[in-house]
Amino acid sequence: MSFLKESVNRQPLADAVFAIAAKAKEDKELNGPEHVVDATIGSLYGEDGKLVALDTVYDSLKNMDNRVLAKYASSFTGNPDFKEHMYDWGLDGNSSLAHDVVATPGGTGAVAMGIDEFLEAGETIILPNIAWGSYKLMAQMDNLNIETYEMFDGDAFNLKSFKEVFEKVMVRQNKLVIVINSPCHNPTGYSLTDEEWAKVVEIMNECAKSVSVVLINDVAYIDFAYGQKAAKKYFRAFDKISDNVVVEVAYSLSKSMTSYGLRCGAAILLAQQQKTIDEIVTVFAKDARATWSNINNGAMAMFVDVLDNKPEEYNAERQKYVDLLQKRSSTFIKEADEVGLSHYPYKEGFFVTLNMDNKTRDAYHEALMANHIYTVKVNQGIRVAVCSLPVSQCQGLAAKMKKILDTVQ
Ligand code: PLP
Question: Which of 40, 43, 134, 135 to mutate to test the pocket of ligand 1 (most atoms within 8 A of CB)?
Answer without folding.
Answer: 134
